[in-house]
From TrEMBL:
InterPro entries: DinB/YfiT-like (IPR034660), DUF1569 (IPR011463). It comes from the Bacteria. Pfam families: DUF1569. This is DUF1569 domain-containing protein.
Amino acid sequence: MKNIFNHIDTVELLKRIDKLSPNSQPQWGKMNVAQMLAHCSSFQDIAMGNSFPPRSWLGIIVGRFAKKIMYNDKTLPHNLSTIPTILIADDREFDIEKEKLKQKIITFQNNGPEKCTTHPHPFFGKLTSEQWGIGIYKHLDHHFKQFQV
């Protein structure tokens, strides 16, 4: 499985970000490309321990059982619900959001697994740094496919 802590996988993600443009259109979902970049950046903040959204009741009940949808080689289904605090609905500036996300990905990869948050994921609960690395890659891959890159 691909993992953001693998340098080659990170380079691939950064190249895919560079293929996006302000005119990139989603194949599904409601976010435009700048909102998607901001959403992914907000998710990076959670994994880096800079943001601590509360656990949802649904996550507390079924989150640990649902982990298997994240930690396999299958792509994520379209139109999954998201963590409410990282749902981006306001207008964002494409170039700013693109650079923010790139810098967060680079920082996260450079910091390595040992600096990954130990705070529980808002839905899945406690994750190992390897699970965070795989989950972040898979989340980014999902949204990049949404915008055909």
